[in-house]
Amino acid sequence: MSKYGEEIPNHTREDIMEATFVALCQHGYADITMEKIAEGSDKSKSTLHYHYGTKEKLMVDFIKFLLEGFEDKIVPNSDDPLEKLNTLIDRMLFGLKEGDTHERFHTALLELRSQAPYNEKYKKQITKNDEVIQKIIVKIIEEGIEKGKFKDTNPERIATIILSAIDGARARQISTDREAAENVREALDRIIESTLMKNSRGCKQ
Amino acid sequence: MSKYGEEIPNHTREDIMEATFVALCQHGYADITMEKIAEGSDKSKSTLHYHYGTKEKLMVDFIKFLLEGFEDKIVPNSDDPLEKLNTLIDRMLFGLKEGDTHERFHTALLELRSQAPYNEKYKKQITKNDEVIQKIIVKIIEEGIEKGKFKDTNPERIATIILSAIDGARARQISTDREAAENVREALDRIIESTLMKNSRGCKQ
Known about the structure:
The structure is a homodimer.
Chain A lengths: L9 H18 L6 H6 L5 H8 L2 H20 L6 H14 L5 H16 L4 H27 L8 H21 L4 H16 L10
Helix pairs in contact in A: 1-6, 3-4, 4-7, 5-7, 6-8, 7-8, 8-9
């Protein structure tokens, strides 16, 4: 059996990924070590090294793992494109569970993003994640247009502003004392209304 | 004369700040040291320590310095609120000068943002910067409303989405291979048109 990645048994990988999540929330990216991850898992440090070799490789798999979790847990199941879009935005902005863990976790993610320019492997996987998430939003908007619920607009462009605003709100929420997420949620409501909804209030004047 | 901050002679502070800017672009925040900053300045490492004591204190003054530079260099002078807003967005998204320096510099800023949850002093100064910049945008929008150029909308909310989208676009630009800034610029055009402009195309359907 080869080392690193694909062939790690599912339950082993899941256990390591869960422990990585907890360690990232607790210590932040800069202070995380294979040892600290191993402490929160039922695997030893040497097992982690056996499967991943380096912290960098483990982190790349962790970013990949997040994407799998995103599709399973964050993308809502609904026939109504507007409800689907709104629920997805809420989950991305406020998390599945609110509170400290959500914020600490996004802090660690922001640290990973800020390392991407120095680390081609992080950059590649973050790009892939962003592209998949962008496509999910585009698909919801396209579905809304097809069903006649949304205006015939440019889905790529609206998806980009929604995702950039969410990313920016998270970064501001983390790095300032401002309540960015609530404001951005309100602003996105307005954006959705004026750019996607037919007969929007914005068009009465 | 007291150490640290206020009473550093202007030309000394400016020289240190310029050197900090260059060192941040070159090394990134994680690898920057007082020694590396001193190398790019005509001041010695001990002069830096005399004035600032620690790298942390120097960085806080650097974030403050950026805000002063923002008001002088980034905020455009124009009587037309729409032109003022558009020029400001362009400068924030694409920089005064395009290219590598702009991107490296924003990478360092993103690193500083990602450290804010662990560093109350960074958080405080970044919050202050964000609030001043938010107020500048709000004022432009209010001016546009007063002059009858913009719809009577909620300036705080529109300013929040503009700034969050810019922050998010920068973070995506830095951490992925996607061309986020161009897309966000296009999307913001649409947002400005549909939420601020009277008789916008978005209202014809």
